[in-house]
User: Fold this.
Amino acid sequence: MGFADPRGVPLTARDSGSVAAFEEALGQILAFAGDPVGALDRLIEGDPSCVQAHLAKAAIYAWSLHPSFVGRAREALAAAEAAGPALDHERRQAAAVDAWLGGRYDEACREFDAILADEPRHLAALFFAHQADFFAGRTEALELRPRRMLEALPEDLPGRGFVLGMWAFGLEETARFGEAEEAGRAAVAAAPRDVWAIHAVGHVLEETGRSEEGILWYGEREEDWAGNSYFAVHNAWHLALYHLDREEEGAVLAIYDRFLAPGRRSILLNLCDAAALLWRLHLAGLPAGARWRTLADAFAAKYRPGCHVFDDVHAMLAFVGADRSAEAARLMADLAGIAEGGDERARQLRRAGLPICRAIAAFGQGDWRSAVDLLSGLGEDRRLMTGSHAQRDILDLTLIEAAIRARETSLARELLERRLERRPESARIRRDLSRLAA
Ligand SMILES: [Fe+2]
Assistant:
């Protein structure tokens, strides 16, 4: 029977109770809060015909980039199909998730384009399209899609604040820092627990080197981002970056141990944040002790090659960081095989994943010159590592450290001075520049 959500998007459901239950689950999805899969499961149990609930569940699993969730995503897709006749946008969402799981990222993003053209207020589609754009390296779309929805969504309709938070992040990723900060702060003022908007402002403060403000920003609202949010690990990672920039090693390790250290419930993206932080400590010459071993064990248990390039790069960091050269070599061989495929996943690997993983391995072997050559040869393809600017910054940080160690002084100086222009307060950059002068 035909129903519509509060923004007028039609939904297949049995009754208005299902529509209300989906709206509640969607609220958790948008806020990265609570247990949206649990909420969707309860909805589906009462109303298996609610196609949108099956699809949201499939999408959550698909964009977690967690290998053992791929099967669950496919099961949810099959359940959506079995639920019966679906609306056009529901069929297209199923096609988008299926394309993503098959490594056809452009196709997935095109399906979302079509959905949002027909249903410009489709908040669930926007949320998952935003995640798809993020992990497909489509930076411009991160800004464009939320902006279009803001134009289509009247101020009095629910969910607009979350769209503002997504737009803030897109503005930040396209280096429009002033507008990003304004939009992000407005979104947080409207919904203090909008952790994606908190994160967008956090990115601005990171990109502009305002570490002290960043520590304050996160410190003042710790309950909002750290409590009952499955995005807390990533926000904690951002907080640690400010401390790292200020060379506050004790604070970095305390944050790692509290939020990022692998646990039973860690998903692979959490492990990626952990690897990225330990690698940055490693580059700064700060020992992380047994943490590397624990992290490499967690990767060995949960990671499988070729699910997504973002995972692959971080798995390599973990194995090299833990000095596990046999596992690193095996991973490299597996990735080289996967890169011969014909899908987007293979293309990302060929153009970004493989050279980056080779550079990490070279750095681990003390072959600084090879690391410099591989990383400086990436050019615009670095974007295909996907993730955010801040996450890809690990490439520049590794390049700078490799250049310093390879005594490629003029390259290191050029990179550091360019970096200092955007981050004039950085203690870390000044220390590295003084190493060059020594
Ligand atoms: Fe981030």
User: Anything to note?
Assistant: Residues 344-364 form the longest helix (21 residues). The mean pLDDT is 96. Residues 176 and 260 are 29 Å apart (CA to CA).
